[in-house]
Amino acid sequence: MALYVVRRLLQAIPLLVGISFAGFVLLRLAPGGPMAVYAQNPNMSEADMRRIERILGLDQPVHVQYLKWAAGMAAGELGYSYRTGRPVGEIIRERVPATLQLMGVAYLIAIALGLTTGIVSAVRRGSVFDYAATTAAMVGLSVPTFWFGLVVVIVFAGGLRWIPSGGIATLGAPFSLWDRFIHLIGPAAVLGLWMTATWSRYTRSSVLEVVGQDYIRRPAPRARRGAGDCWGTRCATRSSRSSRSAASSSATSSAAPSSRRRCSPGPASAGSTSTRSTTRTTR
What we know:
- The protein is mainly α.
- The protein folds into two domains: 9-86, no CATH class; 90-217, no CATH class.
- It has eleven helices and two strands, in the order H-H-H-H-H-H-H-H-H-E-E-H-H.
- It has helices spanning 2-29, 36-39, 46-56, 62-74, 88-123, 128-142, 145-159, 177-211, 214-217, 233-263, 267-282; strands spanning 224-225, 228-229.
- A two-stranded antiparallel sheet has the order 1-2.
- A hairpin with a 2-residue loop joins strand 1 (224-225) and strand 2 (228-229).
- Helix 5 crosses helix 8, helix 6 crosses helix 8 (177-211) and helix 7 crosses helix 8 (177-211).
- The radius of gyration is 42 Å and the shape is extended.
């Protein structure tokens, strides 16, 4: 097992290197390149552009830039942002708590709605709820999340003004759970409903597969006593014993008349007896 894991890790190294190099080259070949952020500034002269390009190392060949970037990644140095000039690692650390909070709430929504919808759709297969859930899941999988997010912002933030259009909290306001919830409910609902569409389909398929197994379908027609169902082993044993005793009693009752008919003389035997007695008298 350890050898297999080591072999797979060694095979993943060239794959990661190839993917990272392809992405690095494509970003450098994009229109404008990394210097497009500075080119949009009207106060930036050509000399300033060349100076910034030399400071950032963008005047070097692409493979040299990639090697420097890969060495920094291996050492944990992610470089500096082209837009703000701040360290990338610092920017990521600032945004990780909000990202975890958003994804955590979205996953809770997806688990609650996706599992419930999938189980009910599987149990009530072919019902109106099943068709409605299937249609809603197909629509949710087909609609892009960014378009759905724009619709939520336009309708609920711009039109109805129920939720804010952005941010994680109101600027300048003291900390409040309700304020955080109002800012979080919009994006969390967009991501949660999108994941609900996927999880409901997976859950429905899994439940239908399990319900169709023999160990689920066969225990249902167990023995029944009276008006209630009998599911226990003891009750099943009692019912089998009672059925056996009833069968034996019916067999005994059916065998008794036949034995009596065999022992009692019939009309033919009575006639033969009277003939024999008449013959003896004549003699």
